[in-house]
Amino acid sequence: MPLSLPATINIREPRWDQSTFQGRAKHFFMVTDPRNLLLSGATLEEARRVVEDYRAGTIQPGLTEDQLWRAKYIYDSAFHPDTGEKMILVGRMSAQVPMNMTITGCMLTFYRTTPAVLFWQWVNQSFNAVVNYTNRSGDAPITPSQLGTAYVSATTGAVVTALGLKSLTKHLPALIGRYVPFAAVAAANCINIPLMRQRELKVGIPVTDENGNRLGESTAAAQKAIFQVVVSRIGMAAPAMAIPPVIMNMLEKRAFLKRYPYLNAPLQVGLVGLCLVFATPLCCALFPQKSSMPVRSLEPEVQDQIRKKDPWLETVYFNKGL
Questions:
Q1: Are 108 and 171 in contact (CB under 8 A)?
Q2: How many angstroms from the chain centroid is the CA of residue 145?
Q3: What residues form DSSP beta bridges with 192?
Q4: Which of 35, 133, 179, 248 is the most exposed place for a label (fewest CB within 10 A)?
Q5: Of 227, 248, 226, 246, which Cα lies nearest the Cα of 238?
Q6: Phi/psi of residue 58, nearest 5 degrees
Q7: Mind listing the pLDDT tens digit for each residue in 172-206?
């Protein structure tokens, strides 16, 4: 007779040690697996039921530890960690590789004309806005007007940045021109992410103790969370936008692409996809999902609020978003 599954497995935390880069990388390879996009609604709801039942102390008969962890990672890939709501399909981290390989591949292929730059930067920043909203930290609602204002300002700033960089590099060598999309994406991430998450910067994000007990909201924690996400996103884009241009620049000088020019875009997309399969989880793993900071680094009023609840607490934790 199989042994009963213990009720002490902590599925609120990842399966692997998040204090190490290796543990975080294993975790994010699971979360960003594009195959999660193919799971049916029934599979997602079943995973949610398994996870929520287990957290409530109800263990389904015959459930194994591997099945429990599989359900947890399916749940994590589709449901927001703070609100519990099902996330928009294209905004999930498992959509990062297929969506970004297509958009980035097209940005790197169609970069020579202003209309093409304008269109693909708009598509990219619109996609980023969806991702930033979907993976925001905290559970406070965002009004449609706040979301609309953030989207317009973020996308406009990013597109203007791209066009400005293109005009500065039009007299430079062709290889330099190929890096305009990366420079634009890096600059745009610094604009788009803070703007789409500006509510967090104004009112703060939830901070908790080690056991997940909510202690208050902190704008200092929000600043650290958004900074870490910006760094991760730029790192995520770097290999996919830095390596393919060099390879494509060499290929375009050879007879192969001159003979088969229609292979330019598929090759570009394929190279970008290969980079993103590894860059996406590895750059998500640069910082722990459950980030932390000393209580003394929080705003004075938040420190006072925490001291009243736990005078000896030295570190608080928060979900940084993705």
A1: no
A2: 23
A3: none
A4: 35
A5: 246
A6: -100, 120
A7: 666 666 666 677 777 777 777 787 777 888 888 88
| Amino acid found at 54 | Y
* CA distance readout (Å), 68 to 3, 11, 55, 56, 117: 14, 8, 11, 14, 46
pLDDT score for 139: 60
> Do residues 12 and 212 lie in contact, with contact meaning Cβ atoms separated by under 8 Å?
yes
> Are 78 and 58 spatial neighbours (Cβ–Cβ below 8 Å)?
no
Which pLDDT tens digit goes with each residue over 90-99? 888 888 888 8
Q: What is the pLDDT of residue 1?
A: 38
Beta bridge partners of 214: 208
Cα 221 off chain centre by: 18
Tokens representing 42 are 């029934």
Give buried/exposed letters for 3-27 (b at 16+ CB in 10 A, else e).
Answer: eebeeeeebeebbbebeeeebbbbb
Predicted TM-score (pTM) above 0.90: no
Longest distance between any two alpha carbons in the chain, whole Å: 75
Residue ranges of the alpha helices (H) in 204-263? Answer: 219-252, 255-259
| Nearest to 268, CA basis, from 96, 117, 103, 124 | 103
At 17, list the tokens.
Answer: 């040690």
Number of alpha carbons in the 13 Å side-chain half-sphere of residue 271: 23
Distance CA 79, CA 66 (A): 20
How does 129-146 read in b/e, with b if 16+ C-beta sit within 10 Å? bbbbbbbbbbeeebeeee
Low-confidence ranges of the chain (pLDDT < 50): 1-2
